Amino acid sequence: MKVALVVLLMDVVIAFLAAIDGVVVVVLWGWFAVPLGLPTIGVAHAVGISVLVALVVAAPVPKSAEDDDEWEEIYRLVRISLYRALLALAVGYGAHLAMG
Questions:
Q1: pLDDT digits (tens, 9 = 90+) for 21-47
Q2: Any stretches that span the bilayer, and where are they (predicted)?
């Protein structure tokens, strides 16, 4: 039963993080691709693009030096994923402002 709960929780977390990445891609797409004449995209398309890019340029996430339990490791990976999304949005916003 515990394994099933962990798997279910991981599915929910992965879906949540994919949605966050999708929203970031939609915003960045609207700032940079739409002004070039490309059509707007929805979150579903953005999630697909995000997954495609992740498959092509997947970078391994370094394991923490400590021997964390599985919940600590999951929490660390979620933090890294959210940080990446926020950093991409912040850098993109700066570039968007610089474009005028």
A1: 999 999 999 999 999 999 999 999 999
A2: 12-32, 38-61, 82-99
